[in-house]
Structures are given as structure tokens and as C-alpha cells.
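Quarterly update, task 2.4: zinc ion-bound model.
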Amino acid sequence: MEISDDNDETIFFYKDMKYSLHNFNYQLELLLEENNRLHSKLNLSNILLNIDDNTFINYIHNKLSVNKENIKIIDDYLLKNCNHEIIEDYIEGGVEDDMIKIKYCSKCEMSI
Ligand SMILES: [Zn+2]
């Protein structure tokens, strides 16, 4: 298998982009939660911007699903194109459970 620094650079780029998308979605979900909370508390039809047709809320939902699709595409790309370097690690399984062994790639950080 050919190992190239260029390939690693590309993998790191997409890996970081994926984490940015996850973070972006987290912020969007917080925004929706806050909107729902205020919506039920104040019994107003729309909190986020004063738009009766829910355009802004629909935009956020659409953005969330587009981001999720792109995350899937990046995951597929990483799995197929990374020159994986698999490492093993142990994580806690819960209060009374044993440690769980996991395998993941140190470059793309995908579970293998
Ligand atoms: Zn990898």
C-alpha cells in the first residue's frame, strides 16, 4: 500500500471538516431546542424571527439533514481512502461493567 503525506493531509482535512459539521449540527440543535422551549413556555407561534411560515426553522432542519448527509459521505471517503493505522484502546463500559476494547484509526479516527 502506498503511503503518501498528501493522502494523510487530505484525510486530516476531511476528518476536521466532519468534526466541524458535527459541531455545527450541535449548535443548530441547541437553537431548535431553545426555540421549542420558548415556544411552549410563551405560547408564541414563532420565536426565531417573526416569520409565520416557519421559513427559518425549516431552513435549520434542512441544514441539519444536509450536514448529516455530508458526514456520511465523509465517513465513506475516510473508510475507503485512509491508509489506516489501527490502534487498540480501552474505554469504560459503565459503572459495574468491564473495560471495553475498541479499535480505531489514529489518522481518520474511524472505528474499525
Ligand atoms: Zn484511517
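Highlight for this quarter: DSSP finds two helices and two strands in the chain.
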